[in-house]
């Protein structure tokens, strides 16, 4: 992949990079030795790559420190606060879904501590639920059900 990419002017993007670029460990088995060799090889290839390499992770602390020393930039995207979540929900929820209680729904949704990606998942869940309805209107119980489903996937539990 690296060989082909360097001749194509590609940008390499590794999502969930911590799984591939994990910290090297003390060698206690042949599996550890092999994993460490893979990380060392990737480190070498990234260092030699003439183009742009982007790594994305939610677990920065799991990426081998040697990679960070070679990065030109590291960007941190914090979890959105309630005010920003409100704005994100307002931009993501189609206005056709909101009727007389739209403001209340937006405020309720913003109260849940969700990342932007989780919010997108909630919207997609709602879109599927509302797809075949003659008039796709979002109501509180449906919103809470979709948020509850997303939080359950994340190992969180909500009441009410």
What radius of gyration results from the CA coordinates?
21 Å
Q: Order of helices and strands, N to C?
A: HEHEHHHHH
Calculate the terminal CA-CA distance, rounded to whole Å. Answer: 49 Å
Please work out how many helical segments DSSP would assign: 7
Mean pLDDT, to the nearest integer, reads 85
Q: In one word, what is the shape?
A: elongated
Biggest beta sheet summary: 2 strands, parallel
- Structural classification: mainly alpha
Give the strand order of the largest sheet, numbering strands 1, 2, ... along the chain.
Answer: 1-2
Estimate the strand proportion: under 5%
Q: Count of DSSP E strands?
A: 2
Low-confidence stretches are none
Helix share of residues? 40-55%
């Amino acid at each position: 992949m690296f060989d082909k990419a360097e001749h194509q002017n590609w940008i390499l993007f590794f999502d969930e990079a911590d799984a591939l670029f994990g910290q090297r460990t003390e060698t206690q088995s042949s599996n550890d030795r092999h994993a460490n060799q893979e990380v060392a090889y990737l480190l070498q290839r990234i260092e030699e790559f003439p183009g742009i390499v982007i790594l994305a992770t939610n677990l920065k602390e799991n990426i081998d420190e040697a990679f960070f020393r070679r990065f030109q930039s590291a960007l941190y995207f914090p979890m959105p606060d309630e005010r920003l979540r409100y704005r994100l929900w307002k931009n993501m929820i189609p206005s056709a879904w909101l009727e007389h209680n739209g403001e209340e729904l937006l405020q309720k949704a913003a109260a849940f501590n969700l990342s932007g990606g989780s919010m997108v998942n909630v919207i997609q869940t709602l879109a599927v639920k509302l797809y075949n309805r003659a008039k796709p209107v979002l109501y509180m119980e449906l919103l809470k059900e979709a948020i509850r489903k997303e939080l359950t996937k994340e190992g969180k539990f909500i009441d009410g």
